[in-house]
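Hi there,

I know you've been waiting on this one. I reran it after we fixed the sequence typo, so this is the corrected version. Both the input and the resulting structure follow.
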Amino acid sequence: MKELGYVEGRNILAEYRFAEGATERLPVLAAELVRLKVDVIVAPGSGAVIAKKATDRIPIVMTMGDPLGSKLAATLAHPGGNVTGMSALVPELGAKHLELLKEAFPGLSRVAVMVWAGFDANALVLRDMQAAGARLHLAIQPLELRDENDFKPAFSALRAGRAGALVVVRSPLTVVHKSRIVDFAASHRLAAIYPDAEFTSAGGLMSYGVSVADLWARAAVYVDKILKGAKPADLPIEQPAKFELVINLKTAKALGIAISPSLLQRADWVIE
């Protein structure tokens, strides 16, 4: 926003609200923003869904999510309502995660997949991953989370299922508890691939996915246009343009895992 000429406290005022993974708080937070009569609400997928339920008047800029599956927009080209912004739905990313794991660990036969139950975007990724698993001769073990209390039984199920690797699908729940997931994988010397660099920066082995920072930066352009008079209904929703493969070589060495030179060469970022 600063690059677009906005300085907080001078020509823009930001009201921050964080659910910190407690999605049941989202309706209350959205209602607060509506009462404040803000000019624009900026939120990731699940937050945008709740904000839409709270208001059909205030423009909403989605930073990531599934606008069509969540019924927030009529089409990407012509949203038609009060929601626009960025789509981060790339179901084939699930297949890419499995392909990367199979390349890194050719003998892999069973993979656990951590998803947020009831989250439509996660369900689509899991469905695509199960189809890819059959093609790659990988058995898929879903680990469904509903709230933070499900992590412990999910970890127990993972150990009991003897999965050789873990795929973590991005959701508000996994993002908030990323350190807990990364620590579990490390303590059990488990190979894992994560949805983006937030996880590898926290100690995860490797990640592949859309650049979250890029999505938020591009969302700022939408805010600028709306503040200057554009209508969200007329602003096409953009799809992801930047993807990153990040490998944490420090974690690989700690786990005693050798990452192939070809995979390291393709990495956009290697943490040493």
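Quick highlight: The chain has eleven helices and ten strands.

Best,
R. S.
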